[in-house]
């Protein structure tokens, strides 16, 4: 469920995580665990967006 939630956070075309994805995570994860998944995923996505916007060259 953590991976599903991470994917949902990364792909938010409607501006939010769907109720279906959140409810699936909440069924097996505690609120603290959801937070522990959400924060790093959100930060990673933020850095990714900054890199894309600034055209920062990322080595492969």
Low-confidence stretches: none
- Averaging pLDDT over every residue, what do you get? 89
Q: Write down the Rg.
A: 13 Å
Beta-strand percentage?
Answer: under 5%
- Summarize the amount of helix as a percent range: over 70%
What structural class do the secondary elements suggest? mainly alpha
The global form is elongated
Task: Please describe what this structure looks like.
- The longest helix is centred in the last third of the chain and has 24 residues, at 31-54.
- The protein has helices spanning 2-10, 19-28, 31-54.
- It has three helices and no strands.
- The model has no long low-confidence stretch (mean pLDDT 89).
- α1 packs antiparallel against α2 and α1 (2-10) packs parallel to α3 (31-54).
- The chain is elongated, with a radius of gyration of 13 Å.
- The protein is mainly alpha-helical and 60 residues long.
- 72% of the residues lie in helices and 0% in strands.
Question: Could you give a quick summary of the protein structure above?
Answer:
The protein has 60 residues and is an all-alpha fold. The protein has helices at residues 2-10, 19-28, 31-54. It has three helices and no strands.
What attributes does this structure have?
72% helix; 3 helices; 60 residues; mainly alpha
């Amino acid at each position: 469920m953590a991976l599903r939630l991470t994917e949902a956070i990364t792909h938010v075309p409607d501006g939010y995580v769907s109720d279906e994805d959140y409810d699936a995570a909440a069924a097996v994860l505690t609120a603290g665990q959801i937070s522990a998944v959400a924060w790093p995923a959100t930060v990673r996505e933020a850095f990714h967006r900054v890199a894309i916007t600034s055209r920062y060259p990322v080595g492969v």
